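Note to self: the last two entries modelled the partners one at a time, which told us nothing about the interface. This time every component goes in together.
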Amino acid sequence: MSEITLSLTGICKSFGEKKVLKSVDFTVPEGTIIGLMGKNGAGKSTLIKCLLGLLKPDEGNAEVLGEASWNMSVATKHRIGYVPQILTGFRWMRVETMLDYTGSFYKYWNNSKVISLLKKWDLDPWSKISSLSVGERQKLAIIQAMGHEPDVYVFDEPVASLDPVARREFIKQLIELNMNENKTMLFSTHISSDLERVAADIALLKDGIISFKGDLSELKERVKRLHIRASKELPQSLPFHRIINSQINHKSAVVTVDGITEEELIAFKSSYQAIITIETLNLEDIFLELNQ
Amino acid sequence: MKSIRYILLSYFQQHFFGSLLTVIGILIWLVANYQLLANHAPKSFLGFFFALLCMTLIMGQHLKRLIKSNSSALLPHYRRDQLIAVAIILPFFVIWPAIILGFFSYPVLRILALYLFTSAIILWFTFRYGENLLVLLVLVWLIRFNYELVDLPLQLNLSAFFLDFWPFNYPNLMASLFILISIYIYVHFIKNFNRVSILEFENADGDESDPWAKDYDRATRFTKRMAQKMLKPVINIPPNITQRLMHLARSFQFALFSPGFVVYYNAFMLVVVLLYMGSILLILYSEIGKNPRYIIPILFLVYQFAASFLSTDFLQHRGRLPFLWLNSQVPTKKSFSKSVVFSYLLVAWKQYVVISLLYTVLLMLLSYSDLSGFIFLYTFGAFVFTVIPLLSLLLSNLVTSPDAKGWMIFNMIMAFIVVLILFRIWHLLSYIHLSIALGICLVLMWAVIRKWEHIEMDFSSPD
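The predicted structure of the combined assembly is written out below.
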């Protein structure tokens, strides 16, 4: 059984009156890729910062590689690669000096890998950071996080500003790292197609809690949209468990459910003499439904 | 180590020149005034002390930026290297004043303790609450200073107070204790603030796409809260007037930050600054014949002036207001938010107060009797920096469809009228009156700011 690499237990975090995280329990086993999804402002970055000890949670425990995040040892820091949403740093530095600076903190720094990534992503080592575009800065942040070849990668919206080519390249890197080197990865995103490409497990953050965590195919299997046409007038409250959204219009309805059994469907069909078409949703549709 | 070299390089890259000039200026002053110091002239010590604190503020500003880089906290040994870098920089600012003052027969240990302790407290407040608290303190100090000039019974010989405040039989022991406490504060906040203070504020609004707004929110929140508490019993604007003010403010806001307008506004502010700085330079120049020491504040003025423009992108016309050099993140249309007017006013005011503090210190060092000219300039500057934006704000409904050129002309005319009027009434108004006027301006400003926050507005289509 694989070990737990990242773990949050009962994490609560508020900013003033605003409760961002409400008792979040979340684990990332070793060697898995998990995509953290949520709307803007859902608390994805806050969750990641609590996880990495960059923010102190009001309640709960955060652990990285079995160590409390808030007092992370230097040895553990060597094993983490983090890409923040916004690259902060010395704007006066050149790309090359920035990487040199970052590399100077680590015992091991794979310079040839860094150079090859710079070439692959078309980043000029002599460019000043202040002159880089947002996308280029994001590429630089990703390269910075990969240089010391950590065991755990945490990316906060890593692809938000990347062009499609760079995004595909990034996703490819993730898959290779995971497949070949069994690296653990957590990345937050709201671009669902990337998650589908990686075939990652996903965690949905909604209203300050993880509303779903599991395999993507499992989620797709669970969440279905039902198109109902009945002979009788439908009630305002349909007799399904775990309805996510519903639109009822006399004898027809469109209902999104989180899990439905064959028995429920048969019972409903016979009660209302209904024809039910079941639509399988893609991740983006599921995300939209869950966040409506 | 390479990382420390980079950290230090970053410091020198950004602030060394300014700090070095300050140090050189003070050293020159010290050489010119060593007899005064040796005689323990209280005012000269006080001014000197404040100049040192200004340098501390500069250093604090830099360090805050340096360590704010939150992702860096995950770099192995980052904080250790940071502490080493600070340890290298700090003595430069802390030790030498003590040595110099010791040379001039002040008790070295006590001076060192006093300076370390005060600067540690100030740094801590700066990091924890933003520099606005410090600005408020400076303001209080300036007001007290004004009163002192007219011999009101608020006089307090601060330097004597500082130097004589050791009510103990073992002063050196106590001084050592204070030094230890100071070191503890330094180490404590450097260890913790990058993980708690800064990030707590940064994430408070959940808006992570607008670093400019975050920075200002963090910096202004404390002052805003204080102002709200202070002004609550005083200000009670009826809702309809508030709505009207908000409408006006909104028009102003659109006008001020509409594309193209900022360039004109820069030009306008450049004129105002030139007039303001020029008038100070003229006064000082006329005094040089009487006292050669006035060359020092002129050097300072030149530096401040150059720094104001060099540290912004004014020349490149990239949509930044010219002399908000204390914070290089100045609003552009993209980073437009509803707190922008508030932020603008606050930053302009903050900028002005900090510069005023430097001038006050310098002029106080140089002149011991007649400061009415300076007081005038101080108040005049405050007027320019606070009232003109406010008046523009209030009168913005004159322009039904905000137009960049129209606004530029309007502001230019306003500025010249104000300058003319103030030059005419220079000899008619005492600094007390001007101080009262300044107070009224401030209250008005806060009133607008306070109500602004409660109005929901849609800024999506400025036109």
